[in-house]
Design brief:
mainly alpha, Growth Hormone, Chain: A, 2 domains, 0% strand, globular, transport, MFS transporter
Length: 431
């Protein structure tokens, strides 16, 4: 019994570490796309176009996510959560290492950005299955009373991955320009070899979930989970897609605002990078607390409140970022990313997964989130297209993100509340 009681904590730890290390790989690409790649892989065009192309390559990773969600979701619901999660680690780690070894445009010309984009697509395929699998694994190992708390550690791992990625980039970004563009930027990508090894060793000993094992033993595994999902759960898939628009806040702050503040307002790169660290460190503290609250009062109030809070606070965030005041930038990052956005970010792993029964849970959360995350993936590109001239050019960007947050909150309001539903009854169709 003692071992069984430890499984939820172990599952949460495995999901945290695996998510942290996999999303380290994913976030270093976003940082490099904002600061490095326009000059390294897209140097043959004017600077503005190079920036757009680099941000487009970041967004392209999100195009691969729905495809990866269908493929990895199918196998996650057919052969188990654990096996697929090990595969996603190898795929992400290998593609990231390859980016670090890729010759630049000066060496191989137009082949460089083409290969870079293909490797980014592989990153997207991997990321599509990571969070959904980790969420399913942790949720199905947890007790009814603490599902949100333990499952939230998957997203805390994502925050930790962002912190790790940024901490690696801070000293690298301080290198002289020629060294940074020549070899310095490669260091974070090459370190993915260590990332892959640690994550694999941590994850490989985790047992399969009892919920999935029972389904498999009783031969109740869906032959084609996606078909079952779209036939019986299409309203929930659509709901998750719209709720996932909340992730536009994350890529706006982590990618677009980083490049915007440094290039247009002269904010030092380390200032924006440290602001991101502060926001994510704060989220590591607040996300488990928001999850504990959701286990007591429900998923919907926490998610909706956080989404509407983001819609309001994105405007003062940009005021602070464009002011150039370091303290204001730090405070804005801590409040928006670390406190308010942390609420829906902590809750969605349980909120979305609890909409589906175990037979289609991996597929449902993977496909729903990854289609919704398309908007997040292209938020930096859309933002760069919307931004105007002058000190208030950010207003259209803030309005776009705020609208996404309000729409996500509205979709969440239509969902069933599931925090008191037994895990065996989750996703059952109501008469």
């Amino acid at each position: 019994m003692a071992t069984k009681n430890k499984l939820p904590k172990r599952a949460a730890l495995v999901s945290f570490v695996g998510s942290m290390l996999e999303y380290y790989d994913f976030f270093i690409y976003g940082t490099a796309a904002a600061l490095i790649f326009p000059k390294v892989f897209f140097a043959n065009v004017d600077p503005s176009t190079a920036t757009l192309l680099a941000l487009l390559s970041f967004g392209i990773g999100y195009i691969a996510r729905p495809v990866g969600a269908i493929i990895l979701g199918h196998f996650g619901d057919r052969i188990g959560r654990k096996t697929v999660l090990l595969f996603t680690l190898v795929l992400m780690g290998g593609s990231t290492l390859a980016i670090g070894l890729l010759p630049d445009a000066k060496a191989i010309g137009n082949a460089a950005p083409i290969i870079l984009t293909l490797l980014r697509l592989l990153q997207g395929l991997s990321a599509a299955g990571e969070q959904s699998g980790a969420n399913s694994l942790t949720l199905e190992h947890s007790a009814n009373s603490n599902r949100a708390f333990f499952t939230s550690w998957t997203l805390s791992g994502t925050q930790a991955g962002a912190i790790l990625a940024t901490l690696v980039f801070i000293p690298v970004s301080s290198l002289p320009e020629d060294q940074l563009l020549g070899w310095g930027w490669r260091i974070p990508f090459l370190l993915s070899a260590l990332v892959l090894l640690v994550a694999y060793l941590v994850r490989r000993t985790m047992p399969e979930t009892p919920v999935f094992t029972e389904i498999k033993d009783k031969a109740k595994v869906a032959r084609f989970p996606v078909v079952t999902l779209l036939r019986d759960y299409w309203p929930d898939v659509l709901r998750v897609i719209v709720c996932a628009l909340i992730a536009t806040v994350s890529t706006m702050t982590a990618v677009f605002a980083l490049g915007y503040a440094t290039s247009k307002f002269g904010v030092a790169r380390p200032t924006m990078l440290w602001a991101g660290v502060l926001g994510n460190v704060t989220a590591l503290i607040t996300q488990p607390l928001w999850a504990l609250l959701a286990d007591r009062i429900g998923r919907k109030p926490v998610f909706i409140g956080g989404a509407l809070g983001c819609a309001v606070l994105v405007f003062p965030y940009f005021i602070a970022v464009t002011s150039g005041n370091t303290l204001a930038i730090f405070a804005a990052a801590m409040i928006l990313s670390g406190i308010i956005y942390a609420a829906p970010n902590a809750i969605w792993p349980s909120f979305y997964a609890e909409m589906f029964e175990a037979r289609v849970r991996y597929s449902g959360t993977a496909i729903g989130t990854q289609l919704g995350f398309l908007a997040a993936g292209f938020t930096p590109l859309v933002s760069a297209s919307l931004v105007g001239e002058g000190p208030n050019g950010w207003i259209p960007v803030a309005a776009f993100v705020a609208c996404c947050c309000v729409i996500a909150a509205a979709a969440a309001a239509t969902a069933r509340e599931t925090h008191t539903v037994d895990i065996a009854d989750l996703g059952k169709r109501r008469a």
